[in-house]
């Protein structure tokens, strides 16, 4: 099997183009690929499959073997793969809940390969996450006594489920509270039976926020694309930022998120790098796997310059 290792905002994946959904045992393959003892591991596997209704279909397998309905950072990498393969500037990618438009974009930092991807659909209804909290139908910028007495939370699906808290910098510097809450909500519980991505957001300026995310099925991650987009949406709706385009910093770098309202619907774009780390060959025998070849690119060096820039600007939050 020939795979790419890629990353969006240091959210790292292997990418494999398959002919059909059960070509190999993808859960077992993903767990093996994501093991840190194997070439440093990864956060998940991106499957690129044929589609009858779009240019390609994307499936996302998390490191623990669970399947995500969407992944914004991964979608950028799939967008680049498909656009370069088909020699086009724009494409449509089929995901679990929507067909999403993607396109090549102007670089956000020097010569970084950059893609913009649609994040949709957006819903504040708790049954779309799903989430059960008292008798509420929505949670919009509210203090939730069961969670915290000083954090304002919003629940939103995009379509991945997210709980977004606006916090002071102390909750960014010390992750203890976020760790405890996210671990509870992603364990056996009655509030979020399927788990939830938990993001703490610190507004920096009228057009900048910092986001740290505990990702369902992964844990604390360098970046989660849908979480960054959901966080930019909440910061915009609740007037913590005034620009339609929000710069979102995270432990893995930064992206830009465009938030617009059109015909009573939010139109969200996630804009960021799509970096190819290397090309790999894996041999499969009886559901056991082995790396047999590897070719690394220089693209991670380009992104490291971006990381240095972010650390110099916001090192205290990383």
Automatic annotation (TrEMBL):
Residues at the site labelled Could be important to modulate the pK values of the two catalytic cysteine residues: 162, 215
InterPro entries: DAP_epimerase_AS (IPR018510), DAP_epimerase_DapF (IPR001653)
Keyword Transmembrane appears in the UniProt entry: no
Coiled-coil blocks: none
EC numbers: 5.1.1.7
Pfam families cross-referenced by the UniProt entry: DAP_epimerase
Classification via PROSITE patterns: DAP_EPIMERASE
Compartments (UniProt record): Cytoplasm
GO molecular function: diaminopimelate epimerase activity
Pathway noted in the entry: Amino-acid biosynthesis; L-lysine biosynthesis via DAP pathway; DL-2,6-diaminopimelate from LL-2,6-diaminopimelate: step 1/1
Keywords: Amino-acid biosynthesis, Cytoplasm, Isomerase, Lysine biosynthesis
Keyword Transport: no
Binding positions (substrate): 11, 62, 72-73, 160, 197, 215-216, 225-226
Gene3D superfamilies registered for this protein in UniProt: Diaminopimelate Epimerase, Chain A, domain 1
Domain of life of the native organism: Bacteria
Catalytic activity: (2S,6S)-2,6-diaminopimelate = meso-2,6-diaminopimelate
Catalytic-site annotation from UniProt: 71 (proton donor), 71, 224 (proton acceptor)
Described function: Catalyzes the stereoinversion of LL-2,6-diaminopimelate (L,L-DAP) to meso-diaminopimelate (meso-DAP), a precursor of L-lysine and an essential component of the bacterial peptidoglycan.
Family label: Belongs to the diaminopimelate epimerase family.
Subunit annotation: Homodimer.
Entry-linked HAMAP family: DAP_epimerase
Protein name as it appears in the record: Diaminopimelate epimerase
Gene that this sequence comes from: dapF
